[in-house]
Fold:
Amino acid sequence: MTMSKRVVAKSLVDKVMSLVAGAGKMVVVCHMTPDGDAMGSSLCLKHTLEAIGKKVCVVVPDCPPGQLMFLPGAEDIVVASYHPERAAALLRNTDLIWCLDFNDLKRIDRMAPLVEASHAPRIVVDHHLNPQIKADVLVSNPDKSSTCALLFLLLEDMGLVPEMPVEGATCCCCGMMTDTGNFSYNSNDPELYRILSILVAKGVDKDAVYTRVFNTTSESRVRIMGYGQYAKMQLLPEHKAAVITLSKEELDRMGYRRGDTESLVNVPLGIPEIVFSIFLREDDAGYVKISMRSKGAFSVKDLCERHFGGGGHCNAAGGEMRSSLDDALKRVMSLMPECDEMLEKIEKNNI
Ligand code: 5GP
Ligand code: MN
Structure:
């Protein structure tokens, strides 16, 4: 009897083990603008497989946020936008490719053709809905709150948890924390705490990870978060919605650096009457990044898929618009009747 019921089917674990056994060199790829879970799972896997003698390189499409550079092994990550030749060569000459924390090759941007062109077998480990990547082994479980937790369970089934060094455990802990807001949402699964206790027993300083990830800031971030909430948050109680916009000019004025607006979109959801929150950030003239968050059954994933060429999870999703910030805001406002219908349906069905 195992302690918990199987999350990854035995046939998949066996396939992963045989692919790993046959591979000396591996590349781990995660999504663009990698977050704590993408970086954490990739580096956890690297440390664990290196402990059994594999050669593992993590390749990311673009530069990871500075806040995550404390993760052990982060300094060895190859950034494809800085070193395209090196990234291409690694993918050409690898025995095995791991794709972690993304469900569609679109999420790795310019690296997609490199992965598609490679003849190496491909293992996907991910917790997003509806995986769209062809893989030799697809380990997909949207019930898991992070790819890190899912990866841990896979490594456990492979018998590799004892091999996971504290560096890998620290990376795993980081992703589990960031994808649950430090265990404040999607975090009622007791298994999370079983995993966490194993990681802490390995020597992970969970409190230090928290301080680095959630409690380390910068002047620009403090100002932007304050300004966004004080001056730029529009509440639409009649639609149970909140909208925040920040223009490039405003961001530049406050010394914006990537990552400075992380979690701003979550803030309005603390207001009981607000069910969904939308944040529009003008990254460049004519390009607006969209982030959405919601409560309960209101699916911002559906909204982002239908209207903004994006996706994500039911309660956290994103997309983009190639337009001015004004037009993006107008487009969002034009969707309010549709959002009202979604809310009505949820209320009627009592979900
Ligand atoms: P965030 O709002 O933090 O940028 O993204 C929240 C979640 O939405 C991410 O974890 C990701 O799953 C999804 N997401 C964000 N932007 C995009 C996008 O442009 N395309 C897709 N498919 N998903 C996105
Ligand atoms: Mn994730």
